[in-house]
Amino acid sequence: MTATSTTTGGTRTDGIIAITGDAITGGAITGNATAGNAVAVNPVLRVASASPAAAAAHFRASLAFHADVSDVAAALAADGDPGFVVLDSRSTESWDQGHVPGAIHLPTALIPEQAEQLLDRAVPVVTYCWGPGCNGATRAALALAELGFQVKAMLGGFEYWAREGFEFETWEGREQRAADPLTAPVGAEDCGC
Fold first, then answer.
1. How far apart are CA 182 and CA 156, in angstroms?
2. Cα–Cα distance between 13 and 139 in angstroms, integer?
3. Which secondary-structure segment (H or E) carries 138?
4. CA–CA dist 118, 112 (Å, integer)
5. Residue 135 has what pLDDT?
């Protein structure tokens, strides 16, 4: 959606609205448009927000496809079976550098030939890769879904698992780092989200 305004010379569709006065009502700028008093459209509102019903459907669907690092950690730490398995879709070198304890190691390229032997179709799978800058968890989730598995991708990947202070395993043993205050509250059990 591009901002449009009427000027003396015609209609502008360049993202600039020329106005006099400052009345904004219901997302529409009102007032007399003139070519001499241009105001840039707010980049956040350059594309209108979705309707509440469309937004609810989108965010509900997002939660069906994604799991948060903290939620995965809490479910794994609770007593009993969490009801899902965690799958690390990275290379062996990456796995050795650090992985979620109890995760299954299955690089994305090997999913078509090995998923059937390692996973139970009745148990949902949560995939992860390095972090938010990597779409490996998404590719792994796609490969598993195409094979008929229930799957979610873990937002943040291994990077945020480690940055939030959760214990991880390396080829040398278990490690745990202090939580990064930019990713997790200091001295609290959870973020309250």
1. 13
2. 38
3. helix 136-146
4. 11
5. 93
